[in-house]
Amino acid sequence: MTLSRMGLWTLLAIAFGFGIVNLTPSTALLSVFTQAVVFAIFALGVGVLLRQNGLVSFGHALFFGAAGYGMGVILALEAMPAEAAIAVVLLGIGAAAFLIGLVIVRVPGIAFGMLTLAIGQMVYLLATRARGLTGGSDGMSVNWPATLFGFSQSALLKPSTLFLIAWVLMVVVTLALTLILRTRFGSITEAIRDNEERARFIGITTTVPRAAVFALSAMVTAVAGLLSTLNSGFVSPENLHWSLSGITLVMVVVGGSKRLVGPLVGAMVYVIFKDLLGEHATYSMAPFGAALIAVIVFSPHGIVGLFEQLRNRLRHGPAAERKLP
Amino acid sequence: MLTINLFNGLVYGALLIIMSSGLALIYGLRRVVNFAHGALYMLGAYIGYSVATHSNFWVALLVAPLVMAVVGALLDRYGFRLLQDREPLNVMLVTFGLLLILEDLVVAIWGKANYSLFTPELLNFSINLAGHDLPAYRIGVIAVGAAVAVGLTLWLRLSRMGLFVRAASTDPITTSMQGVNTDRISAAVVGLGSALAGLAGVVAGPFLSLSPHMSSDVLIDSFVVVVIGGLGSLAGAFIAALLLGMMQAIGAVYLPEVSVLLPFVFMIAILIWKPSGLAGSRT
What we know:
- Chain A is mostly helical.
- Chain A has one domain: ABC transporter involved in vitamin B12 uptake, BtuC (Orthogonal Bundle).
- Chain A contains 14 helices and 4 strands.
- A two-stranded antiparallel ribbon of chain A has the order 1-4. In chain A, strands 2-3 form a two-stranded antiparallel ribbon.
- In chain A, α4 (82-104) runs antiparallel to α10.
- The two termini of chain A are 16 Å apart.
- Helices cover 73% and strands 3% of the residues of chain B.
- Chain B has a two-stranded antiparallel ribbon with strand order 1-2.
- By secondary structure, chain B is an all-alpha fold.
- In chain B, 51% of the residues are buried.
- Chain B has 11 helices and 2 strands.
- In chain B, α1 (2-30) runs antiparallel to α8 and α6 (160-170) packs across α8.
- The interface between A and B is large, with 39 and 42 residues.
């Protein structure tokens, strides 16, 4: 995709967000959409790791929850203005994830997933047991200041504003990731993902780029964590639990992990369907289990893969089905 | 205090042996990280509960694993066999989907209340050992764990079927070229692994309570055990299960604040030192 077309798509996507705000009839529905967008960013973080490193994380809720806790603690201590705190939290999580990544990306395959699960559960257990500052298993409220980036809190917390902030952030993060992955860094990580040994033979250091992708994916997820606490004003150990990581991974795979839009689509489909079902079904996880199995069995490249297949068939006829990379 | 904790550590280690040997067997043969194993454990416990309330514990101990064996064989025939050419991640997520479905199924049938299996009359007494009263039932759990470990090892090492299982775990294609029906072997092994999960569920019933969330903790601990031991390695899983049980027992005495973290710290340390696990040669 050329840069100008990318710019066009970005503008269209942002305009689409404004369209949603104006066409959505109720604020309750709009806050469901906001939640969907927050999860879309979360899933984007998990998805970029899978797409670029070929690694499955069962512990990304760690970064989602840590962003909320980090923000909550800094604001509670009144250590610095909220704007600086946001930067500190994002960079801190990025740096921490880079260091963790340097160690754990060398562990291959499933064991990597189990490591992320272990690290995530450790922090979860610490958070449930810690008293004092973080409130233990009760969670803690995040006291956002009266004004943030010059906007008053009441204006920011209007459902329509909140949705737009989340939506624009999602578009910007997606654009940023697309641009980053177009560079040499993107090709290097793809080479390492496809064959680490060969990549090393041609002189690429393989650990640092993968740790960088891990850090990048953690930061994207941290953005979602910050948005979530801005939305709810609250963070609890549930935000750190592995089941949240697992569900997000489901969103990524259902949406399709070969494209960056896959996780976005998966997350939105998930949250909106959960809301539709939530009122009727008490046991609402089984339909998702069934949907997950159906998507994986019938369309291994997810919803986005299915659409691409259909589009190619329409354009070129059934014979010219292009294989996804 | 320490003695009784070590004893309880041994009991939990035995339970982990029963759970994780099933996981390791299935991973060894099918290369599937089976999240549904936790659901089979839970299903086994609840079926055991229903059977035990209608007849007695010993019937439950027999029926629940048998039912799970059938479920496991079907899971292999209509699940893993059809998906064997798919990416491991995708198959793993299918089992995650199964876990979600089965957990809801349990809630739909038995509700959200907590249950507990009664300790069977026959073992409802204590044995005094070095000044401590040790419940006979828990000694029985240790015995079952030991029997599973010894039985599986002997079966794999000495029987003809065990030879086929080991061969198919090493190289399924060559094994089937030698005339071994690997599909039947797989169905048997996944059935056996699932039966062990059911057995673990019934055995755990009298000392861990039955709840819709019971699968999560034991499943994660079993994953930790299997990964520490080396994926697919039975001997590694046995050692890791005992280490984990003991570690939690000792941790509960000396480091009560962080004892729940110990398994994870242990796993991280092992994997950084040896990414393929204690006894693992493959990843």
